[in-house]
Amino acid sequence: MADKEVYDDAVEERVINEEYKIWKKNTPFLYDLVMTHALEWPSLTVQWLPDVNRIWWFWISEWKD
């Protein structure tokens, strides 16, 4: 029984590695920028928001993408 579990874990790890290789090969087509190195905590995620132009004399905001 233990041999089967070890074999299943090895197969699962191999499948994950193959899927990762496929993903990494196709990332230039999916994303503008991909950084594949680990970041230090707390920089786990980054979000870029659209620019905001404020027209102060009307107190109106205009969003740009």
TrEMBL record:
<keyword id="KW-0677">Repeat</keyword>
<feature type="domain" description="Histone-binding protein RBBP4-like N-terminal">
    <location>
        <begin position="18"/>
        <end position="52"/>
    </location>
</feature>
<dbReference type="InterPro" id="IPR015943">
    <property type="entry name" value="WD40/YVTN_repeat-like_dom_sf"/>
</dbReference>
<protein>
    <recommendedName>
        <fullName>Histone-binding protein RBBP4-like N-terminal domain-containing protein</fullName>
    </recommendedName>
</protein>
<keyword id="KW-0853">WD repeat</keyword>
<dbReference type="Pfam" id="PF12265">
    <property type="entry name" value="CAF1C_H4-bd"/>
</dbReference>
<dbReference type="InterPro" id="IPR050459">
    <property type="entry name" value="WD_repeat_RBAP46/RBAP48/MSI1"/>
</dbReference>
<dbReference type="InterPro" id="IPR022052">
    <property type="entry name" value="Histone-bd_RBBP4-like_N"/>
</dbReference>
